[in-house]
Structure formats: structure tokens, C-alpha cells
Amino acid sequence: MSSASSLLSEDQFLCSICLDVFTYPVTIPCGHNFCKKCITEHWDINVRNDCPLCKKVFITRPELHINTFISEMAAQFRQSAGKKSSSCSKQQWTNTGEVLCDICTETKLKAVKSCLVCLTSYCETHLEPHQRITGLKRHKLIDPVENLEDRMCKKHDRPLELFCKTDQICVCQFCTESSHIFHHFVPVIEEYEGKKVELGKTEAGIQKMIQERRLKIQQIKQSVKISKEDADRETAASAQVFTALIQSVERGMAQLIDMIEEKQKTTEKQAEDFVKELEEEISELMKRSAEVEHLSRTEDHLQFLQSFPSLNPAPPTKDWTEVRVQSSYEETVRRAVAQLEETLDIEVKKLCTNVELKRVQQYAVDVTLDSDTASPYLILSDDGKQVKCSDIQMNVPDNPQRFSVCNAVLGKQSFSSGRFYYEVQVKGKTKWDLGVVRESINRKGKISLNSGIWVINVRNENEYKALAGPPVFLALKSKPQKVGVFVDYEEGLVSFYDVDAAVLIYSFTDCNFTERLYLMFSPCNNDGGKNSAPLIISPVSHTD
Asked: Is the separation of the CB atoms in 375 and 406 below 8 Å?
């Protein structure tokens, strides 16, 4: 058996489906052999019960039995191949990954070409006949490859040179004239190039998806980092707020205790005075009682009547019926709690606004005025940080960006995402406009309140209004000297703050931002010199 198996080649024991040595080989009715698992899976996947080699179709799925002869031969070959592989692995000329010459008998040299007709790989020396003999010159030579049998049609023993686009498999020339006669064919190289381009696009798409996901990971990590920073900042701010509130409550509690103790002292003093007065009355009454008792024991009628007029009159006494010593602390506590509530409400609003202002000041940006947008009546400082109104129109180019009717100017910076904050000094002014506007705002005519502006303005020193539609009149307790403006593009939020008082003036919420936003400044007209002070963009000093 050993000598017989040595005459057999490997391809006689290879399953044409898995291309490996048979495992539990079975023979189907057409005579072809396959691994039992391979042919079973083939029939499970395909609708027809056909032979993968000859395509013969069976009406019913054949019953499979192990071909013991082929199984024994495959086992013998596997054992022999294992020994040969073990022996070859010890030889120095074995080079993993290289295709070796099939003709060399001793030291095998590296193959330079493989012949698809001979199904053999050749080194430089053994390739010489294919370069010299006319008949061999017509053979198809390719770069050296292993498993040349896999490049041959199992049915026609011809090279797989064509690709059947109908069945999506490689076929030989004879296949196009038989089982694939009406199918669409292209050369293998053409299909290869097409698939290569398609694969390149797929790879590019995959790499793009990988990059997008890596970018998303970075964004998520950055969001987590920002969230952590916000959480730490809010935690510290909350601790500050609650500490201040606790201190305020403790002060209120101490004041209430002092009030109760003071009232108790007053009550005790009043009680002491009452007791002293009562004791004095009792003393006087006891003296009179003694005199009355002494006189009442006199049995001499004449003496009794003579002494009776000299009896001391009754001492003056108070009617103690309605006198009470009571102290009710309910009203004291109620007033103290009400006052504490009012104080806490004021403190909470003040502290929360202060904390909020500190938070938004973290997003401070450097703002510079854009002279190309300034109204001809406006004068800008050299550093672009101040603007005031002139009574004389300046000689400036009338470009599309410039305001021609409204005495306004925009900042050079624009924003289409994120958060930003800036501060403007309005001290000494009786009229001004501040806020943000969309990029497409009308610059050559009157600005409509519904055309994409979110500003507050002041008229007559104390007439404050929020403008983004119907005007909203604002009642402010103090006149702002410096105004902070905060914008959160994604949240659709624009907030205005009295920086010095750390008070929120007004907030536009649920704004629909669809364009780039620009910062708008309007010092308004001079008003006969009453409003000649400039608007000044101030560096942000974080609120204490």
C-alpha cells in the first residue's frame, strides 16, 4: 500500500469544493467524490441537488455513504504527506512564501514562471525550453503561483481565462460553448481590473468610515472632557452658592434666636416687676389685716367705736384679673422666616447670576470692529475697539457690507457654531443698541425686527427694550455701565448681563440660527451732545 500511495498525486485526494484532502469522502451517483460536509452544505445553499463538477441534477437528494476505500487512501496520503512535509521542513532550501521549481530534483530553486498549459512552475534553467521550442513558446506563462490546478477548468482541463458575469464564476473557452453558451463573458484580466477599481472604492469608503468614526470618537472624548470641566466648574459654583445660602440661613437663625432670647428677657423682666408689685401689695394688705384683726378682738364697745375711725384706709391695689405674663413666638418666627425667604430669594438670584456670569465669561472672545461695515456717520478708533457717532457724514466707499441708513457697525468676527461672550462699556450713554444679527441682515435700509436680529436697545436713558420681534420692555433696577453679551449657537440662546451688578438683563431663547452671526454695535446719534460717549469693547475681567 505504501508503494502504491507513493504513485498517487495530491489532486486525486482533493475535494473540489474545499480544495483540501478528503474528510469523510462520499461518492454521489454521477461518480464524483466530495467531503460529506462540503457536498451537504452545497446542496443546503443551492436550490438544485446538482453535482458541482458535471452539473448533473438529481431529482431527489442522494443518500450519502462514506466511501471507505477513498477514505483509507486519503488517510494514507495524509500520513505520507505529513512525513514528507516534516522531512522537507528540515531542508535549508525550503523558503516559506516562495514558489519553487517543480523540475528541480535536489536543491530546488526559486521558480521564475508558471505555465498554465503544463501546470508546472520553472526556475530560470528549466524555463529555457519554453523560450526556445516553438510549440512551448505558445504556452501561457505567468508569474510563479502555487496550486496551478486551481487555475484549470475541472471539467475541460483548460485555463480559466474568462469570467462569466452571468454566473459570477471563472470559466474556460470550452465552457462558453457548452454550459455557459448564452452567458455574458469578459476576459479575467478585465473583470480583475473592474473588481480592483470597485474594491478600491470600497476600501476608500471603509477608510472614510473609519476616519469618520475615529473623528466621532475624538468628538465624544472631547465632549466628555468639556462635560467634565463643566461639571467641575458647576460643582464648585454650586458649592459656593449653597455655602453662601447656608451662611445666610445660619445668620437668619442666629438673628431669630437673638430675637427670641431678647423677648424672653423682656418677659422675665415684666414678670419680675409684676411679682415685686404684688409682693408690695401683699405686704400692705397684711399690715391692714393685722390692724383689722387686732381691732376685731376688742370687746370694749366704747373703745372699739372710738378706735374704728382711726383704722388706716385700705391701701390702693390693682385689678390683677386681666394681667397675664405670656409670650407667643409664632409671629416672631413667621416674620423671621418670611424675611429669610425674601433674603434667600434675593441671594439665590444674585448668586446664581454671578455664577452664571462667571461661566459664560469662560467663552470670552476678542472682538474688533469692521470699518467696512460702519455707517458713514460713525467714527471708529484706530484699534477698532471704540465707536461713536458724528454729526457729519464721512467720505467712505459705499460697499455692499456697509450700513447706509442705520448707524451701526459689525464686528470682524463671525460665528456659525459654539459659544462666545464679549463685554461693551455703555457708561455715559443715553441711547445704544447691542446684540447679534444674521449675515444677510439688510444693510441698505431700515432693519425689520423680524429679519434676524437679537438686540437690546436703550432710549431716554431708562427705556430698555429687547428687540427680536414685538418689543419687550425691560424694568431694570439699576442702569448698566457695562453690558455682557453671551451667545450659544446650538442652544439658540442670546443673553445680556449687567456686568457690574452681576444681573441678567434679558435672554432670547429658542432662537433659530441658520446663518453666520455677526456682533452688532450702534452708538445711536449724538442727541445734541447728550449721547456723545463712545461704545467701548472692553477686555473681560472675570467676575469675583
From this structure: yes
